[in-house]
Design brief:
Distance between the termini: 46 Å
Shape: globular
Oligomer: single chain
Helix content: 25-40%
Number of strands: 16
CATH superfamily of the largest domain: P-loop containing nucleotide triphosphate hydrolases
Largest sheet: 9 strands, mixed
Low-confidence stretches: none
Radius of gyration: 21 Å
CATH architecture of the largest domain: 3-Layer(aba) Sandwich
CATH topology of the largest domain: Rossmann fold
CATH class of the largest domain: Alpha Beta
Number of helices: 11
Length: 351
């Protein structure tokens, strides 16, 4: 916690009161939750950003798209449009948001990708479309209680688990820790690759204070792939200028520092919309380090904006590579996740 956090305590109390009242109104029915017209899985968190929602959505897509006619729905954070939209070859990140655009680029041949602030209206619209999906992944919808998903997955990072965090503005929680009671499944994300059993037991015991009895707590880690050229095809150099626009880039910085020779880090806020001044700064850093023959390395999410916004010819002049990531589970935890989806979602009509 930041050293001055105690000064923010009164504001956190006010925030807590507002969010508790809102949740209470839903609990007693003054605010209405409706069931999704399509089988649905909610993926979300209690904190603001950085818990790995998009990699988890991608994991679920890989797990489910061969067996189910699948779609994703998010609000499209950071987009410059409003209302309900379906991704197509003509859309840009500015129209649907960088994360939905990333998902569409990777999986658009196999699934449908939608955005809409009003999730319930969007779901009703999707359900009436020809060739409607059988299952929909609701990205970042844990606080969107107007829709009651069939399975609610709560994500929380190993580095900053919800049970040791505090409400805004003292910490990063969007609602109190007790919000975990709505979760059917908790996944601790970004875990070390060699997480021992005693640490898993500790996390499960801590989470149990806030969630429903016998709520499964699973553990996932991040696996990085080989860098892929964004522009012209060049050989990758291990001397790296890292470009990030993430809520928390420290795990990525640590990985790059361990795996490659990290020359410089250019940090931007989460969902940063790269502009001409940013490309000038990147080009300046590249020229300063040109004698070392560096490459620029960035994330899949940032690559969407970089490719879309880069000045003409920029990608041919500066060697930029993308570092792909995937979520990994132990075999037991992956089986538990699959069983929860099977029992709570896919068999819903048979109960």
């Amino acid at each position: 916690m930041r050293w001055y956090a105690f000064l923010l305590y009164p504001f956190a109390l006010i925030y807590d009161l507002v969010t508790r009242l809102r949740n209470w109104f839903f609990d007693i029915g003054w605010l209405k939750s409706a069931s999704s017209p399509i089988k649905s899985i909610v993926i979300g968190n209690l904190s603001v950003g950085g818990t790995g929602k998009t990699p988890m959505v991608e994991f679920l897509i890989r797990m489910l798209h061969k067996e189910q006619k699948l779609a994703t729905l998010s609000r499209g954070y950071g987009r410059k449009t409003r209302g309900f939209l379906k991704a197509s070859p003509e859309v840009s990140p500015e129209e649907i948001g960088d994360e939905p655009f990333q998902i569409y680029q990777k999986f658009g041949q196999n699934i449908s990708v939608f955005v809409g602030e009003d999730r319930l209206n969007a779901l009703n619209e999707i359900a009436t479309q020809p060739n409607a999906p059988e299952l929909i992944l609701l990205d970042d919808a844990y606080q969107h209680r107007y829709v009651n998903g069939d399975l609610k997955i709560l994500l929380s990072t190993f580095q900053k688990p919800f049970f040791s965090d505090f409400l805004l503005p003292m910490g990063r929680l969007r609602e109190s820790r007790s919000g975990a009671k709505r979760a059917d499944l908790i996944i601790i994300t970004k875990c070390p690759n060699q997480l021992n059993d005693s640490e898993k037991i500790r996390f499960r015991n801590e989470a149990a204070h806030y969630c429903k009895l016998n709520t499964p707590v699973l553990f996932s880690s991040i696996s990085y792939g080989e860098p892929i050229p964004l522009g012209i095809s060049l050989l990758f150099s291990p001397k790296v200028i890292l470009l990030t626009g993430l809520a928390n880039d420290q795990p990525l910085v640590d990985y790059v520092h361990e795996k490659f020779e990290l020359l410089k880090v250019l940090r931007y806020p989460d969902h940063h919309d790269y502009a001409e001044v940013d490309f000038d700064k990147l080009a300046h850093a590249f020229r300063q380090l040109a004698s070392q023959n560096p490459v620029v390395l960035t994330t899949e999410k940032d690559a969407v904006k970089v490719k879309s916004n880069a000045p003409e010819g920029f990608l041919a002049e500066i060697p930029i590579f993308v570092l792909p990531i995937e979520v990994r589970f132990s075999q037991d935890d992956e089986q538990t996740l699959a069983l929860q989806i099977q029992q709570k979602v896919l068999k819903k009509d048979k109960i």
